[in-house]
Amino acid sequence: MTIIIDDAGSGDLLWGMIIGAYKPETDLFTYDLIPVEFFQEPSYHDKVYFKEAALIALQLVSRLNLGEKEKIQICQGNILDEAAKILTEQYGEDRVERIRVEGKTQQLVEQAYIDELRNLGYMTLPERTEKWGKSFWHMFEWVKENPKRIQWTKSAFPNLQRYKLFRQPDLENDASQENKNPSKKQIKRTHDTRKAVKAKNTNSSSH
Fold it and tell me: Has residue 190 been placed in a domain?
């Protein structure tokens, strides 16, 4: 048996990032979210999202009850580099490999990200993954309609500073900068208790 780990949302403007894990043989899927605060200053500069991704990956493997001889396959994206390193140290090189994730695992993780965006009130473009540029501007215009939505963006991405919208004074509602800095104070995460569930329908929420 194998556990496949993938991510979604790392390069998107809105919200945090999904780390998901799927066990094909049992058709079980689970995921967790790296909060958007990890992609905002001052936290983004410290790159603590790498450690958070690793922590989540370890938790997901535990939820799916990795067997003694079962293997772990991890997406090749650099956001999971730290996760791959830690999992390799814990389970050994012969049980952990980096792969290009496709198929049902990719669909489930992508759907989890889409569901998170729907909770914000944003509806993604049907062709989002095929047309990244169009998707970016669609998200950008949605934020521009109500600048308070900036609090839901990965506002520390360097390329965003060219846009006037992201050079405005802080519009977030957080009480202080310290409260949203995960490198100094633990952010309350809302997905820690999610259990692995059957994932037969990739066209709907599966978490």
Answer: no
